[in-house]
Design brief:
Layout lengths: L21 E7 L7 E5 L4 E8 L1 E6 L2 E6 L3 E4 L5 E4 L8 E7 L2 H4 L5 H11 L6 E4 L4 H19 L4 H20 L7 H20 L6 H7 L4 H12 L3 H19 L4 H7 L5 H12 L3 H9 L1
Antiparallel strand pairs: 1-8, 2-7, 3-6, 3-8, 4-5, 4-7, 6-9
Helix pairs in contact: 3-4, 6-7
Amino acid sequence: MQIKIDSSQKEVKEHGAYGFPFLVSFEKLSTYESGSFLWHWHKEIELTLITSGEMIYQVNNRSFHLKKGQALFGNSGTLHTGSMCESKSDCEYTSITFAPQLLYGTENSIIYTKYMKALLTDLTCPAICFDLSEKWHKEIIASLCTIISLDRKKEAGFEFEILMELLSFWKCLSLHYNTLETRTDTEQEHFDRIRNIILYIEKNYDSDLTLDDISEYVHISRSACSRLFKKHMGLSLFEYINQYRIEKSMEYLKSGSYAVTDVARLVGFNDSNYYSKVFHKYKGCSPREYLKTLMQ
């Protein structure tokens, strides 16, 4: 399984219904290929509560090591991904996604202008980690647990209860928002470049990608491009390209319509032997061995 995204990396999944844009989903990293979900974004706010294990959660160019009992606020429109830690142990988590309009109604409302606009439009604050290092984090975690419980039970009028708890959550968040450390304009510029690099890779992964092409696309030097990506993403640019190509190749392998040599070419590997070597590095088996597991 993998998250479905469009050409702009926006998730195509519906987060609740039009009449009540709210969704609670129970997830496990092991259900995703490689124990991680692809970079994607959506307009909805996402609250992630870790219920078992640990996760490396990246939002824009920030990385968080989340553990059981901790949670994360992901701002609207942010690019994010999650993966297993080095131990490769599984992680169970609950995601709460909701359209911010559910709370403020219209953009000229007091709730929006006084309590939500500043955070929703703050590009320097893509995420907030509730790691229980502050007393108010416990109040936030309690709200998330209440929301999850209300959604699970779905008793008469539960939508009212969920809405009230979401407002309580936002009240607590907004009261502490001004005390949070924000990012500089330079850091935001770095994230914008990284996002453009990722977009370029995902549009051209099946071509012969070069550092010259990528650095020219984001208007920085080759060396600056490599350093920027490694610093903020935690892996080299071409490690990311190879990982992404392998993920895309699995979609072709699963279809059962292509030979391994054809799949290699379709995802940008000119040498099928090298493709098999890279596949084994990230998946622990060859493409042909992986195909056999699909037929079992």
